[in-house]
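Why this split exists: single-chain examples teach little about how molecules sit against one another. For that reason, every record in the complexes split bundles all components of an assembly together and asks for one structure covering all of them. Below is a record exactly as it appears in the raw files.
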Amino acid sequence: MKQIRNFSIIAHIDHGKSTLADRLIQATGLVETRDFRDQLLDTMDIERERGITIKSQAITLPYVDSEGREYALNLIDTPGHVDFSYEVSRALASCEGVLLLVDAAQGVEAQTMANLFAAMEHDLEIIPIINKIDLPSADIEQTKEQIELDLGLDSDLAILCSAKEGTGIDHVLEAVVDLIPPPAGSEEDPLEALIFDAHYDPFRGTIVSCRIFSGHVRPGDTIRLMYNNATYRVEEVGVFRLAREPRKVLSAGEVGYIISGIKTVSDTRIGDTITLEKNPAPAPLPGFKEVKPVVFASIYPVASDEYRSLVEALEKYKLNDAALIFQKDSSAALGLGFRCGFLGLLHLEIVQERLEREFDQSLIMTSPTVQYRFELTNGEEVTVDNPIYYPDPATISKAFEPYIRASIMIPERYMGAVMELCLERRGTNSQFSYPSTGRIEIQFDLPLAEVIYDFYDRLKTVTQGYGSFDYDLLDYRESDLVKLDILLNGEKVDALCQIVYREGARARALHSCNRLKEEIPRHMFKIAIQGAIGGTIIARSTVNAFRKDVTAKCYGGDITRKRKLLEKQKKGKKRMKMVGSVTVPQSAFIAILRSDDKK
Amino acid sequence: MDGWFDGLKREVLYQKDLLGRFDSLYLGGGTPTFLNTKMLEQVMASLLDHFHLTPDAEITIEANPCDITRRKADALKALGFNRINLGVQSFNDNVLKFLGRRHSSENAENAVGHLRSAGFKNIGLDLIYGLKAQSMKEWIVILKKALSFQPEHLSCYQLTLEKGTVFDRRSRQKNMITLPEKTAAAHFLATSSFLENKGYIHYEVSNFARDERLESRHNLKYWSHTPYLGLGPSAHSFDGKKRWWNIRSVKKYRSALNEGRLPIEGRETLTKEQRHLESLALGFRTRRGVDLESLDATSEKALVMLQKQGLLKIINGRAVPTRRGYLLADHLPLCFSP
């Protein structure tokens, strides 16, 4: 029987994970060179463009070692962003080992560390790989030193490779076979299969990616999803090659898929355990968590008559993204829409981009917010993820906001700038460590709300791109919050209101007013943009009226031209929203969060 | 020139029965006074032979002050023209030079004199203002000079630079020669109030008439969607629903006609929505305004708002632009949906 190795590649973003995966796929001959596309596992356009993996994917690679022994190498690709850390943890739980990829020019980064910890938590065999050794700026010795000191791994074991050039790939494959232990688990025990991902297929329904820990599953079996106790009859099992490849059975140790008439991805939970109805496992596999959104925003169709189409797009989108939650929402300014919960800012951007690109929606997205908690004077506790529902301030006895533990890794010279940024963002409880010469890891407790407010951009700016950032959710802490209203010509615009920290309210209000001033086109009248807390105006900006907009001549030949211009302007106006008498472009609703130095 | 005329004569034959009787004839687009009297005679003969004009028809010719001698003025009168549109542009020689005109302020003054002597009782003067180099005071001096001739009609065009014009090429930055928006608006309003105080009716964005009957019949047709027929290279025509325009190049215009084809370069048939949009755009440029009946129920809010802002007035069931409304005439249609 073939031997099995289950492994994953973990790396900081841009350290070459997808390229290495591509090379491994090529080297094992699974795909002919001529059929090859870059970043084979990143099937979505958006993944290729951004160079990140959003969904987990698995692929079974055939491999024959130098002594002729056959192996099935299961490569489980993991999402490369902190928003998806739970998905990563479930993918890692399905492996026995990982390839920890470090860019020879960049060295160890925050996510390298975070990934390493995650791998260690799962007791995985860790093989350090130094990638991009072909770069002129590659510093192998320094990277080795970081692996030794920052990561505490034996740098002598590190494999040198250039995934781009294809050098060192054979060594990587040998190490996978030699160093990563084969899966344990008995075929005789009851079925325990860990769901680490699920995809929606319009013809087959939900295709569950899973790792079999014990027992086996065959077409015709009745399986039970242990979290919600739903049962399904298995239609097909198999492994992932370039396409799905059906098998008669999936047994302990293997990685593959199960198709069993599950309608939507949301009917499954990543991390749930699949067992057999007849001979069930006594308990689910450990580590299951229900993922909860941490960032919230509303989306509205630009044109109100596109609401139905948005409903359909969201429902379709949701088939493949269980992490997105949404419910009906309505705004006086923007009409009917949806309040959505996201795993993080990246997730939010992905959802927005895919809805617009793949589902052809024109959306208005409001500025994202976190979930606040309020203790009211009557003893009640309320959770608010939409500033519109900010409780009457007179009834609030205590307010709480979520905190994260941020860990930022930077070259030492940026320490001052990053400290300043974190303190400005209400960071507390700072800790520093110097994992290796010239590099520093700064940890801070930060309010999540400050992080979703252009923190990444600012960090990138102050560290000139050298800062890397990772975080864990901590807890809720008491805070002094106020609701900031934005008024256009005296009229409150609900879709623009924000919950902000009292001390920073004036600065935030001014920022919002100035951003809106840039976004809102001139009208035939002056537009006053105001920021207010309660009845008090704390910031103001003005969009001046245009005074003259008429051409001197309009005779025979001018009329068609003028009409065409008007038609174009009318079309443009349809992509804007009327707020009272003010026409507000789509972009304005999210612009209030954008930083000043980014145009 | 002969080629153009040969073409025109043929085009006349093609189009003579298209629209019934005409109450306005306008020879213009460029300055046809450039043609010698004999040529003009032939043009007019060919037109009058084939088109029926009403007895009270307005018959206008666009004239360049350089071309108007006493003899020419008499000849024009004899040819049946009863209205002259004189391209004076300015009564300031520096301005004329700047605009690249071949005539002088003196030429203009003389031309008006000749026309009056020849018996013309309906003279319109074209003026340009809104140059950066010209103060409001200097402009008013020019206006006063114009008024000293008691013109029946005045067109005051505020300088706008369109892409590809000489001005655009000469000064890359149009800021160099045109007024900033705020000042341009002030000059516009001052011009309007100055001329209205002198008894002129500001009946279209750039047009003033001493009397309601002296409003240019020709111009009004454009703005009220009345059918008109244009002849000659790049002339535009409209039959109430369709619009078409002739080939620009004289050579191609002529060869099309020689080959027995209409020299049409492009055409469009207006949809109901397009007609409506145009009627708003054109209506808000004139003091006739827009018929409230043509606006749908959703326009009520916009109407109220625009009245409050002092941009529109309701007069006899029509939404009529105010002086400030004229300034934003190109934007007003956008306030009305759909």
